[in-house]
């Protein structure tokens, strides 16, 4: 067995690696001879230590120069991960190790619903403290007003400015308070309050009197917290790219524990806000770093499931928080109860590995392959032979920059905006529970409970790839007209008036959906939509117009509209082709897309190979292979002797190509595609 510190050098002979969709065979020719079984076993146990810059260009010049290679770290790692097991026991073990952090971050993300809850309160009149406590001292001392729901209630911020000390000295009792005259009595704002402890024993709002004139200060509690989430996502994510996901996760876990415990003991209100800011920042670092570790260690076939199930742990914390708050009514004690369990995240030091993908990108191949051997051992896979590891690791250069192309920028901006809107609604509903006449504990618990089936349903939907054509599209641009927007607002308000009389939740939900859709249809109107994404709204409207004139029998107008429709369809298809070309981020993506279009079975190969089985990593070679393969889609198979060279023991690199000649219609359609040569279709 070779020593674990052995450096892997380029082989003297020529290597001809061949990969089909299911296996990898490597046969060496020339001076190196064939690789026997013992050498292959040793190759799997060898540690790779050579860096790309240490290799010479070799006889092939730029073809073997790492600076000229196009293969990215992502593609090289995907190929190795597929060999060792990209979705198995090891991935699930890491998933459960890192996912429980979502429970602790959910505790603090939503804790303001209880530690900063605003209990019922009213002005404190010190002179009335000597009266019998069995009476409601608000009668006669606090004005009566109409609440935001149209219901009467006692004022929270004003009281009747009487000579209360003289009245009490003159024999005023609690029974006399309701009969005191209130007309022409001046009303004054107060600076001291009495809080109702029926639901909460103490809250941060009560401790710092964040009500009435000081109510604006209460909004800082959650706004500074969400600012910490933003700061942590921006700063710690960059640090995770530089120092490693595991390192930032461990540092964030320590900071998260210290800051969250400190919140329970601070006295000044500004310090309370500062420590909550750091709780949010470090919590964001933990949650995002662990999520990236999961996504970087699992194959594409498991990312949808694990990505959605990762959010379920956040929902579990969402449900556990009101259960804890129900039994712990003091806000400082509650803060300790939800902070101390975070000490479990310190166990990451012993159980959480670094992302092997990140290690590979940093050139730390020994550390990456050490983890990948553990993956292979747990999942029952094996590392590729050392010669192929040499080629794959040599292809590592840089990761794709997220905003490097117009399409990626556009999609990212859309996702950012959607996330912003969803977060506004999500946290708005959570923290507005006090405005609903129901138990706040039950409301928060149910809000977390409904998340779990929604994540499962979303996971199933993404796996099934439900068509976007099922969505209803309305003319939302009409809402730019203030008159239309006002009419829509009034119509929605009138529709919702009928919901108050409904008590059955199922009937209430069905009525809500029906009334909302009907109102939108009447006030805004639907837009015609096709299940084919490339058909524009203008074309759809022409199709509807053509159908409308066909019914009365206006043949001339119908033919004119039909010709216009065909012209628009052709234009839409050309735009669609251009957008597809822009979406292709590299030759590997295009090559795999073409193979997937031709075969019903999904290929799991992650690299481009030539027809004779050689691994193609340079840009020019990949582009040539892409063009060659695309041309073969419209031709017959080449002679078998062109696919096999002497001494090569391998199967065909690609599945058989359909020998049936394309129809004339297919040839004409291909020749019309802008920028493509019609001769490829012949």
UniProtKB/TrEMBL annotation:
Compartments it resides in: Membrane
Comp. bias (Basic and acidic residues): 35-57
Topology within the bilayer: Multi-pass membrane protein
Gene3D superfamilies: MFS general substrate transporter like domains
Superkingdom of this protein's organism: Eukaryota
Principal location listed in the UniProt entry: membrane
Annotated transmembrane regions: 94-117, 216-236, 248-267, 273-295, 307-328, 334-352, 412-429, 441-462
Molecular function GO terms recorded: transmembrane transporter activity
Annotated region (Disordered), positions in chain: 1-69, 646-671
Keywords, comma-separated and alphabetical: Membrane, Transmembrane, Transmembrane helix
CC terms in the record's Gene Ontology section: membrane
PANTHER family: SOLUTE CARRIER FAMILY 22 MEMBER
The protein's name in its UniProt record: Organic cation transporter protein
Provenance organism: Chionoecetes opilio
